[in-house]
Amino acid sequence: MTTVAQAPTFDDAARAEILLALTPDVGPILRTRLLERFASAEAIFAASEASLQEVQGIGPKISRRIIGARHEVQLDAQLAIAREHGLTILLPQWPGYPRSLREIPDPPGVLFVRGAIELADQMAVAIVGTRRATHYGKKQAERLAAGLARAGITVVSGMARGIDGVAHRAAMAAGGRTIAVLASGVLNPFPPEHVKLAEEIEQQGAVLSEAAPTMPPLAGMFPQRNRIISGLTMGTIVVEAADRSGALITARHAMKQGREVFAVPGPVDSPGSSGPHRLLRDGAKLVTCVDDVLEELGPLAEAAPDQRGGNIRIAAEVLLNEIEHAVLQAIEPTGSMLDDVAANCAMPIHRVLATVSVLESRRLVRKVAGNRVARI
Amino acid sequence: MTTVAQAPTFDDAARAEILLALTPDVGPILRTRLLERFASAEAIFAASEASLQEVQGIGPKISRRIIGARHEVQLDAQLAIAREHGLTILLPQWPGYPRSLREIPDPPGVLFVRGAIELADQMAVAIVGTRRATHYGKKQAERLAAGLARAGITVVSGMARGIDGVAHRAAMAAGGRTIAVLASGVLNPFPPEHVKLAEEIEQQGAVLSEAAPTMPPLAGMFPQRNRIISGLTMGTIVVEAADRSGALITARHAMKQGREVFAVPGPVDSPGSSGPHRLLRDGAKLVTCVDDVLEELGPLAEAAPDQRGGNIRIAAEVLLNEIEHAVLQAIEPTGSMLDDVAANCAMPIHRVLATVSVLESRRLVRKVAGNRVARI
After folding, report:
1. Where does the record place the Smf/DprA SLOG domain (chains A, B) (predicted)?
2. What digits encode the pLDDT tens for the residues B259-316?
């Protein structure tokens, strides 16, 4: 199930929304305040400079930027370029916009997407880290990304040199999906040596950005970009990171967004492990293998398709063996009779009971009565 | 200030207590119950088999062991050997018996000591780990032991091969003190290749055991010995340890005794780091350097002398610079006037105020009024 096909043209309301999202100096907070005051993006662009300045945080400089946005942003040109390159454009209220991203306090006002975001990408984990990765760090990123990919988890990262690039590549090599979130426009990927990588990712996932498609990489965009990496995922794994680094910013975003933070420990005399060790002191979960991650992840925003033709509500379900999976799929969230489960699975009742005990201990089902069980 | 000199002979009460502590199959719990029932060790050995069996947990087998103890233990021979080798014998209620060890639920009924336990050994930290240490693990044990020793902290360990031995040696090389706790008798050190190490430790600390001086190493004694390692210290650092290992047992003892547990992270693909990582998951403090340890340690059972001629109440005080140290030493636990502190230190009042702020932020002093400050 891929993203809803993009409308070939946009109505005036959508165009105004995209323009607002691309207006320089208007970040998610100001955008929200403006929409609260004027009700629609169209109304914002029709407003006078004086009335714009009634909004807290908007002075002469920003009000002028808003009024000049239509000229400055060159929306028509950007939309034409997007169409020409087959980009998908997503607004927060549209179907196809990732639900987990919609739930963060400051969701991007627009996403430009190369490739496709699928419903299965709800089950996503970020792997991030330093550009100056050690052999050890790369090995761990590779191992975890491959393991997550094999488990059907989409690996999200920032396509930077070092850990990020390794994570994307390992996920794809394992036959899995991966999403790269860029700070620059998706048609202007950074760093330049990853242009080819972006093309590969487009085939096995998506390259996306909230910046206009041809936007060059600006240093100030990177920290802000990181909220999208964590926001797309159930949890963020920091593999190697210096003490002040983008990966730690991503981890802080994940914490604020209520997502899990994982850190891979390493040698205490390796500078790249000081970031993960700091996170571990601050309560991040220690990761040595993929199971450590899957067991910690909470329920999905909505059920996602799994690789075995069922659906997944909690990430740890991908750890189940065939019998456990079959029994789980036969149990309804509203509760099922144990006899019915046994009949549906064509299994003797004692085997169903034993399996339900396992599922209970993994907190995937709960007994609702002596002979009834419900999926959590 | 060394241990109180040992009395050349023991009175009957003391002899009975030592005998009770050495009686096979009578551990700390049974010993406590017996003393509750019979009030003294002498009375226990005068009791009938029938009355001994009135104590919970004592059946015919153990009551016979108690009655046969005087013969089996060969107390006179052991005491003669102890005297001949200049061992110090300590009973829990005697001065010189380590106070931190007296506070654990199951203190040894007797300690045989080669070398000397000093008052400064109250400020002790255990460093323990696997016998099959990696180069990385040994390097960390060495670095931490040396750093602790230089800070005036006594390093306690189990004199095993691997991490333990490295920790003892590094503490001595740094000019510090170290204590080895043996499972065998102190005159029968294990492993055999550490006989020379024991002689060195005796010169710069102590080798001690609750076993009779010539007792051979028995496998069952090692886990029990580990409670003494943690019990002598404010905290235990686990450097490298396999998943089921003696070092983890020491860490669990430390937790139960209310002492700190520290773990050194390492490469996730190194089996020796799986123990520390498990401890970190269970809430152990992550250690990368000595300061990480000192900052976490709570107040000492009683003030200990420091290397600068003052006294120490909280381990983190060894981290202070000269000025901070001088100001701290001028502040009484009952409170001092700031003007008096300034006069005692021959310092301008603004400097005292600034230094007091630092000490306050390190939670070493507290303001008790606008112009009064007290040591914590």
Report:
1. 91-297
2. 999 999 999 999 999 999 999 999 999 999 998 998 888 777 677 777 777 788 787 7
Q: Please indicate, yes or no, whether residues B156 and B220 belong to a single structural domain of this protein.
A: yes
The residue in chain A having the minimum alpha-carbon distance to the alpha carbon of residue B262 is A281
* Model ipTM value: 0.79
Structure-token pair, residue A349: 């009742």
Mutate to test the interface with A, among B264, B268, B282, B293 (most CBs of A within 10 A): B268
Of the partner residues A139, A140, A267, the one whose CB lies closest to the CB of residue B266:
A267
Query: Is the CB of B280 inside 8 Å of chain A's CB atoms?
Result: yes
Q: Find the angle CA(A238)-CA(A239)-CA(A242) to the nearest 5 degrees.
A: 80
A139, A140, A265: residue with CB nearest B265: A265
Residues A188 and A266 in one domain: yes
* CB proximity list for B42: less than 8 A, separation 6 or greater: B12, B13, B16
Kindly identify which residue of chain A lies nearest to residue B287, measuring between CA atoms.
Answer: A268
Residue A304's H or E segment, with its range, is strand A299-305
The CATH code of the domain that includes A141 is 3.40.50.450
Strands (E), chain B: 88-90, 111-115, 124-128, 154-157, 178-181, 205-209, 235-238, 260-263, 285-286, 299-305, 311-314, 336-337, 365-369, 372-375
Total domains in the fold of chain A: 3
Q: Is the dihedral of CA B299, B301, B305, B310 positive or negative?
A: positive
Note whether B271 contacts A: Cβ–Cβ < 8 A: no
Is some CB atom of chain B closer than 8 A to the CB atom of A267?
yes
* pLDDT single digits (tens) A166-225: 999 999 999 999 999 999 999 999 999 999 999 999 999 999 999 999 999 888 888 899
Q: Let me know if residue B95 belongs to a domain.
A: no
Cα B213 to Cα B78: distance, rounded to the nearest angstrom: 7
The verdict on A57 and A198 lying in the same domain is: no
Pairing of strands A154-157, A372-375: unpaired
Question: Does A36 contact chain B (CB < 8 Å)?
Answer: no
A56 lies in some domain: yes
CB contacts < 8 A, A to B, total 49
Are the beta carbons of A268 and B139 separated by less than 8 Å? no
The reply to whether B99 touches chain A by the CB within 8 Å rule is no
Query: Which candidate, B167, B150, B149, places its Cα nearest to that of B159?
Result: B167
Q: Which domain holds residue A152?
A: 112-297
- pLDDT for the residue numbered B260: 96
- From the list B140, B269, B280, the residue facing A286 with the nearest CB is B280
**B341: in domain:** yes
pLDDT at B137 over 80: yes
Q: Cβ B265–A269 below 8 Å, yes or no? A: no
Instruction: Assess contact for B153 and B125: CB atoms under 8 A.
Output: yes
Residue B17 inside a domain? The answer is no
**Could you tell me the CATH number of the domain that includes residue A65?**
1.10.150.20
- Does residue B288 belong to the interface with chain A, where contact is any CB pair within 8 Å? yes
Q: How far apart are CA B2 and CA B88, in angstroms?
A: 11
> What CATH number does residue B350 fall under?
1.10.10.10
Q: Are residues A153 and A199 in the same domain?
A: yes
Question: Both A134 and A201 in a single domain?
Answer: yes
